[in-house]
Amino acid sequence: MKLIIAVIQDKDSHRLVEALVEKNYRSTKLASTGGFLREGNTTLLIGVDDSKVGDVVSIIKKTCQSREQLVTPLTPVGGPVDSYVPYPVEVLVGGATIFVLDVERYERV
Ligand code: 2BA
Asked: Distance between CA atoms of 77 and 94, rounded to whole angstroms?
C-alpha cells in the first residue's frame, strides 16, 4: 500500500475530491499553508493499493491546473524601509506537488 500526499490549490480541491469519490478512492483533506506564499492550500492524504497509484496520479493531473500568481515580496529584514519599493512578481503555482510513500501498516478498526 502507498500513501499519496498531494499539495494542491484550494480552487481545485472540490473537483479532485469529487473525482476521487466517484472512483471509490478514500481521501482525507487537510487545510495547509504554503511556506513560500504563506497562503492557504489543500493537502490530500490518499491511501491506495500500489497498483492504483498511477490512476490516482493521473486523476490529480487531470483535475489540478497550474496558475500564475502575483506575489509582493516582503520588506527585507533589517533593510531600509523608506527606499524599498516592493514590485509584485509572478510565480507559477503548480497543479500539484505529489509525494508517494510506502505504508508499513494500514488498519481501520
Ligand atoms: P508555497 O511554498 O507557497 O509555494 C508556492 C509557489 O511559489 C511554488 O509553487 C513555486 O512556484 C514558488 N516557490 C516556492 N518556493 C520558492 C522559492 N524558494 N523560490 C522561488 N519560488 C518559490 P509549487 O512549486 O507548485 O508549490 C506549491 C505548494 O506545494 C507550495 O506552496 C508548498 O505548500 C507545496 N510544496 C512544494 N514543494 C514542496 C516540498 N518540496 N515539500 C513540501 N511542500 C512543498
From this structure: 28
pLDDT at site 24:
98
Closest CA to ligand 1's atom 19: 36
Nearest to 69 by CA among 97, 88, 45: 88
**Rounded to two decimals, what is the model's pTM?**
0.88
Query: What ligand 1 atom has the least distance to the C-alpha of 94?
Result: 25
Distance 92 CA to ligand 1 centre (A): 9
